[in-house]
Every structure is written in structure tokens, then in C-alpha cells.
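U., I forgot to send this yesterday:
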Amino acid sequence: MFLKRITALSTVLATLVAACGTLPISGPGSTDTINNASLVVDEQQTLKPDFSYAVVGINDKTLEKIVSSVSEFPLLKSWPLKNEPEIIHVKSGDTIQVTIYEAQSGGLFIPIEAGIRPGNFVSLPPQTVEQSGKITVPYVGLVQAAGRTTNDISQTITRGLVDRAIEPQVVVSFTNRENSDVSVIGAVEASARFPLDFNGDRILDAIASAGGPIFPGFETYVSLQRGEEEYTIPFDQLVREPNRNVFLRSKDTVYLYRQPKRFQAYGATERQGSIDFGKRKVFLSEALGLANGLSDVQADPAEIYVYRHETSEYLMDLASYDASALHKLEKGQNVSVIYKLDLTEPNGFFWAKQFPMQDGDVIYVANAKSVEFLKFLNILGSTAVTTSNTQNAEGTF
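Result:
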């Protein structure tokens, strides 16, 4: 019997030792996070030679640089800079009309008996510009129209009639423009397709003509598709930076779509998963509120982490290190940064109110040490019960 108890006790101890390394947790603890960091930006800064990620403490010293570095809008990789209205040219498929004026009746187009009619002009039937790009004008012949303005075309026809008609004047006008239109589609009140105005239409004009976006501006993105190029910009940035509101060109397509800003919350929060910002700007204190706060029976308020990617230049400036100290980081390189907030500090909630969240951030709240100990005790209790039941079963035989 004594031997059996010794064996059972050994089994319990072995199980406990194994349990210490296999207790279920929702993420890393502060010890692992700090010890494995290549750079710790806090009261006492440390730096390791091989860079993997940095831990940055949120406090009065770091917040000033963190807040100043946050840009409300992303840096655009490209955006068309041409800011002049397009000169409308005639294109194949367009329909135009030629009107010819003469100084008096009795000329080439206005007969003598036409003196009793109002006006001294004749309008030729509307013509659709052929694939060849030409139209036909009596006594002039084929006239190149595609690729030219209506004013250019009228001057060419006038020169062709100057020796035939009496002081001819020619007006060329569009009756239908098939190839100078733009389209606005996607998350707008009413998708629309319309020809460009001769004075030019800006991209916001076109969106307004389609009824405007159906989602809030801070959740809406605008894609400008021009030929084989595509440009994308947040709707708010388009409104608030007038130089981005460029003139459209023929055959442009403006596509609006919704892409709400989100962050992810994990660990000891009352709500986990992906959560929408719900407004233009959100700070860490608000993000924790959107996650329904910390779990009273589980969370360690001293261990709140925000995971984010930053540039190497920003990290060097934040850490107050020379570039030589972080020589393995290339200029412009994205680096992993973990921001650490301690709400047990008197200023903790003030810091949380100033820390700006960014799209794609991950918040992780670690478990309190006591929670891990209770898990350990639960495993101990369940192991002891299992051992006792095993002994009782053996005693029945």
C-alpha cells in the first residue's frame, strides 16, 4: 500500500511539472514579451544585436513622439497630379452636326428665294464619326474629325468653302458624345454615367452627381480607374485635401467602396475578435471600451499590449538611438513594435486617452498571475481526484 501511495505521489508530481509548461493561456506574459524583445524603449533602454521586435512603454516621454508621428491619412503611393480640365476632342462614334452660315442669300447654300426665311444658314444632317475618323461635308469632301476639337473642324470646313460660298462661317457642335463620358459606380446613392462638361468635372463633382457615398466618409474609399492605372484614396482625404480633387478624363471610372477601420482584441477582455472603429478617430481608452473593458476575474491591468508595424526611422527616433545602434535595420523597413500600457500607474488612463489607434492594430490583455495559479490548482485538484479514484479501483481487486 505504501508503495502504491509513493507511486501515486510521483505521478501527481510529474503531472504538476508537466502542467507548469502546458497551462492554457491566451497569449504571452510580460516576462516573455520583455525578455524576447530586441529593443525595449522605457525608463531603462536595452538593445540586442539581432532585431526581431521592439517593446515601447506608453508614458509621458514616449506619447509625445507617438502622437506626433501618427498621420491621419495614409501616404499615397501614387495619385494623378494633372489638375486641368480635359480639352474635349471628337472621337469615333460621336455624333456631330455642321451648320453653315453665309453672308447673304444667293450663295452656295442659301438660295435667293430664301430671303423670306428667318436666318441665313443651313444645318446639315447629324453625322456619326466613322471608324476612319472622317465626316463628309458637301463641296468640301471628307474631313478629318476624330482627335480634333469642334473649333478646329469648323475652321477646316470654312477654308474649304471660302472660294465657293459667300463669306462662309461654320459651327460644329456635338449632338451625342459616346466617348467622352465617365462612370461613377459602387457605394453611391445612384450609379451614373454622363459626358464630361466642357469646363471640366472634378472627381467630387462626379460623386455628387451620383448622389454621394452611402456610407460614412471615414469608412469609404475612392478608386479612380484610368486606362490601365488605378489610384485609391480615402474619401475623407479627398475632401480635406483640395489638391487631390483632380479633373476627370474621358472614360474614367470612379468606384466607391466601404472599408471600415478595425482593430482586433484578444486575451482578457470581455469581447474578443475584430471590432470596427465606428468613427474617424479612436484612442486606446475607447478601444478598450469597445471591447467591453477588461475581464475583472482574469485581466492584469498592468499588461495591456498593442501590436503594430512601424518604420525603422520612427523607431530610431522614438528610442533616441543613433542609426549605428540599429545598423541592421534598413531605411524605410517595417518593424514590429509592441506598445505596453500599465493601467495600474496613476496616469495610465490619461495615457490610454491620448494613444491613437490605427487600422489593423491588435490589442492583447494578459491574464493576471493569480489566474495562472488557479489554473495550476485546478489541474492539481483534478489530478489528485484521478489518483484517488485509481487507488480505490485497485483496492477493489
